[in-house]
């Protein structure tokens, strides 16, 4: 594994989102993409003024990348669509919230069907939001099964 995936067990204080994401083995391709963008790394590290209201990351799984085919040309823009500059709770998602992604890269609309939460980025295919979310520091992440290309 690359060095940036190492969890720092000697760190002081509560873990940051980047520390928790380092242990998420089902989304290593997304983490590689995030680590290529200074602004996205700052966001998951808790060091970005763009995310002063917190961060929700809709983290695409490795399977989402495989299903999407070739790596998109502008991977940073694609990943920005997965970042929300506020904390979005599962409750707000199930109640039908619509939020803007980072730098207004996409409008994200959430809804629930048969106890399953979905999100749609603009007119792209819907993605299933998996789990109740993992929170660390001022951020939370959920796995999603689609890449918002």
Helix-strand blueprint:
Layout: H1 17-21, H2 28-35, H3 38-45, E1 55-60, H4 62-68, H5 75-80, E2 83-84, H6 90-94, E3 98-100, E4 107-113, E5 116-121, E6 127-136, E7 139-144
Any key phrases for this structure?
seven-stranded mixed sheet; alpha+beta; 149 residues; 6 helices; 7 strands; disordered N terminus; globular
Description:
By secondary structure, this protein is an alpha+beta fold. Helices cover 26% and strands 27% of the residues. The chain has six helices and seven strands. The chain has helices at 17-21, 28-35, 38-45, 62-68, 75-80, 90-94; strands spanning 55-60, 83-84, 98-100, 107-113, 116-121, 127-136, 139-144. A seven-stranded mixed β-sheet has the order 2-1-7-6-5-4-3. The longest helix has 8 residues, at 28-35. The chain is globular. The model is unreliable at 1-7 (pLDDT under 50).
Kindly summarize this structure in a few lines:
With 149 residues, the chain is of the alpha+beta class. It is built from six helices and seven strands; from the N terminus they run αααβααβαβββββ. 26% of the residues lie in helices and 27% in strands.
Rg, rounded, reads: 14 Å
So how many helices? Answer: 6
- Lateral strand order in the biggest sheet: 2-1-7-6-5-4-3
Segments where pLDDT lies below 50 for 5+ residues? 1-7
> Helices and strands, in N-to-C order?
HHHEHHEHEEEEE
Q: Summarize the amount of helix as a percent range.
A: 25-40%
| Coarse shape | globular
Distance between the termini: 27 Å
Structural class: alpha+beta
- The averaged pLDDT comes out at 91
Q: Main sheet?
A: 7 strands, mixed
Record field, number of beta strands = 7
Question: What portion of residues belong to β-strands?
Answer: 25-35%
